[in-house]
Amino acid sequence: MVALGVFSFRNLFLDVGILFSFGIIGYFFKRYHFTLVSFMIGLFLGRQIDNEVYRFVALFGNDPWAVFKRPITVGFIILIIVTLTFWVRGLLKKRAQDSLQND
Length: 103
Hints:
It contains four helices and no strands. It has 103 residues and is mainly alpha-helical.
């Protein structure tokens, strides 16, 4: 019924193929417990990311390490490492407390 509605909108079988392909993608997302948010971010921000990659290549050439020579990038990397360290440490503490309470 949905395929008939999709086909009747523009009379293109391509639209029916797109419908079924998104249905298959949705099935695998549900089966493997992917979140819809990650798909939406990739779908809507994909073109912008491509544009930024082109801009990066225009600015820095083919040297991907050129970004890490900037102090703001180093600061962000340090902040990310510290944040992840505290997050993992909190998870390990919680797991240790849970195992002590279960014993």
